[in-house]
Design goal:
Layout: H1 11-18, H2 21-34, H3 38-48, H4 51-68, H5 75-78, H6 80-86, H7 92-107, H8 112-128
Helix pairs in contact: 4-6, 6-7, 7-8
Amino acid sequence: MSGYLYQNDLSSMKLAILASTRHDRMVREIASELGIPQIRLRKRMMDRFDMLLLENLPARYEQGMREREQAPRPGRELGAGIYTRAVPLILEDDMDAIAGKVRLMIAEGRPHEEAVEAGRAMIRELITR
């Protein structure tokens, strides 16, 4: 083998990880919740995450889902802890800004579910750009 492993393209190995049963189920759940095509979500994960993080994503996701139940609203509905810490698809500052906007929409009289869906659209925008 010539050259160092880190110099090679690891895309095929990352895709193989994300195609495993637990990873695939996690990707499907996240994509469904956020309304993102699975292939775009996988691509985002492959571009942003290293091999170690990719390997551990299902366990981190499951723990994030358990912790989600104790989170305050609207962060619970938005999956704030999941998408910033467990499966770090967006920055915590960005999620805080989105949650703040959702709280403001609710305070201004917008229905709760509609405001949360607007927040998910903002999350989707950040992930897919």
